[in-house]
Amino acid sequence: MSFEQNKRRIQQSIAIAKREGARMRLGPELEISGYGCEDHFLEEDTLTHSWEVLADILREGSTDGILCDIGMPIMHNGVRYNCRVLCLDGDILLVRPKLFLANDGNYRETRWFTRWQYGWTLQDLLLPALVTDATRSKQTRVKIGPAILQLADTSVAAETCEELFTPNSPHITLALNGAEIITNGSGSHHNLRKLDKRLQLITSATCKSGGVYMYANQIGCDGGRLYFDGCALICSNGQVVAQGAQFSMQEVEVVTAAVDLSATRSMRGAFMSRCEQVSTVPVVPVIHVDFKLCGRPAATFPAPPIDVRVHHPMEEIARGPACWLWDYLRRSNQGGFFVALSGGADSSSVVAIVGNMCQMIVKEVKEGNETVLQDLRRVVGEETYQPDDAKELAGRLLYTCYMGTSNSSQATHDRSKQLAAEIGSFHLSAVIDPVISALMALFVSVVKREPRFKAYGGTDPRENLALQNIQARLRMVFGYFLAQLLPWSRGMRGSLLVLGTANVDEALRGYYTKYDCSAADINPIGSISKEDLKLFMAWGAEHLGYPELANVLAAPPTAELEPITADYTQLDEVDMGMTYKELSEYGQLRKQHRAGPVSMFRALAAKWGPVSPLGLSLEEVAAKVKKFFFYYSINRHKMTSLTPSYHAEDYSPEDNRHDLRQFLYDASWTWQFRAMDHLQQEMQQDMKKRGQGTEHRKA
């Protein structure tokens, strides 16, 4: 919805492309309005403002001498379409609506748009009067639909984001109809380990049938949980010849390449089975354009193939959420971040990511990124501030506090203090026992009974749980109090964004207190698994310069909410009744493989059961699955108040848009569990007949 800024960025990208000698420019999906407008797409204002921006771009000469592919929402015959608008020399050549919409996972495009359902045909689109006035030839109508632009020396066609991921992608038909250059303006978000799939699809798009594929993507936080991870690409005949950054603090990044179209024609002409297929596909409409895309052959040299850069998954965790946090901070105009630093794995991972954000900012400023510098000066409230050291910057942007109780250990206190020192955060330690005691005294005065921990004689599990929860919830209250006033106490501007520190596995299991330190403004690790966070800490200790992360990793995870006695120390995995590794398995099966209790049992019986190296009995596997679904269902209500989190894993249980399920369950699962028991008996009988199931147990 930032039309002013989006117009500036689009025109800046066109200017850079011209300066680089490009004759064609491709931008990302819905770049005029922004991809994440969601229900704002239902407002006529959004469509009108998009046309107004396009009219300015045409009127102000940005498209002179360069073919521009621009993304925006458009209404035609009372139907909204997600469109590409191809422009040249102040006029519109074609409006190309999206043929297949993204409507799974985080995407809900069919809520706002309709796919083009008229096949390979064109219709007339009546332009708004303000656009007619802006076009050079005073156009009143232009063609809308899928088509090929036949230029004087080559042919160009477009597809959009999701269409690349469909089994029968439009680029197949377009290439067989002679399109030599395919563009794809995309709005694709970051997922851990996702870039490989995207690269495979893009290279395969031209590997079999030849041609040039241009891919542009949004970059940054578009106002929600997703981080769009850029990585613009130009691919020629199956080889990447240009690649942009995947994680960047640049507002505008342009990649350019010269390509040899004669190589495409040679490849296609020699591929005889392809030549046979050309006559079998639907005929795509052609629009003739008197414009040459190619320069003089003697003056231009094609770009050679390059080695594609793919980040290590741990580097993805370090950089993706860091860029997302920076976008959120600068756009919300707050003064920094606050983290309740416990000395445990989750909060330590969060502060390490913020520390890396500071490292990235300092690097960007040293490399001359004026936008980052100006945004940073506005955030810190100093017009002449020049960051030279990431630790010094962290002391301005990151505030941490260890909130100890009588149940806390010296080890976690020391780890939090040391890690804060390595990162450079403004760090405090507080003992919150007086607040807990005051609340306990109030409770006893009202109820006339005093709850006790199990270790101190409590007999009801509700006592033990409530006494743990009140510690966690008071940390949240005190944390927000600090976040509002710590900058004030130091004479600095703004308030702080409170960062959540719950990982995806604990959210899935419900192993956290509702409205405790998991309740925050945003959470950079909320959809990252505990297993990945462990790997990240090991990686970060070495690569981020925070060696204390290794000590955090070596310590067993514990909430430290119960009294430590001679014969009892609270441990997370014991409390949960399952390991974090098991939780990752449950999460992937539940969401990514769409498994209910019976399907999950069947899958895990093969992976964990008697004939597997783990060698569990079928009864043990069934008991684990039942335990997971019980705790998942009784805690699902917590998802309704889960802090908005950076989306990194497809098995995230976040119920705002990604994982849409009820939050009130029949936790007995009687029908499903009975079906599981029957399946277990059938498996046991079958294994007994075949003499299976004892070998691994004996081993």
Automatic annotation (TrEMBL):
Residues in CN hydrolase domain copies: 1-261
Entry-linked CDD domains: GAT_Gln-NAD-synth (cd07570), NAD_synthase (cd00553)
Any Pfam family matching the protein: CN_hydrolase
Keywords: ATP-binding, Ligase, NAD, Nucleotide-binding
EC numbers on record: 6.3.5.1
The keyword ATP-binding belongs to this UniProt entry's keyword annotation: yes
InterPro entries: C-N_Hydrolase (IPR003010), C-N_Hydrolase_sf (IPR036526), Gln-dep_NAD_synthase (IPR014445), NAD/GMP_synthase (IPR022310), NAD_synthase (IPR003694), Rossmann-like_a/b/a_fold (IPR014729)
SUPFAM superfamilies: Adenine nucleotide alpha hydrolases-like (SSF52402), Carbon-nitrogen hydrolase (SSF56317)
Coiled-coil stretches: none
An example Gene Ontology biological process: NAD+ biosynthetic process
Any one GO CC term of the record: cytoplasm
Nucleotide-binding as UniProt keyword: yes
Reactions that this protein is recorded to catalyse: deamido-NAD(+) + L-glutamine + ATP + H2O = L-glutamate + AMP + diphosphate + NAD(+) + H(+)
Pathway per the UniProt entry: Cofactor biosynthesis; NAD(+) biosynthesis; NAD(+) from deamido-NAD(+) (L-Gln route): step 1/1
Molecular-function annotations in GO: ATP binding; glutaminase activity; NAD+ synthase (glutamine-hydrolyzing) activity
UniProt protein name: Glutamine-dependent NAD(+) synthetase
Organism field: Hanusia phi
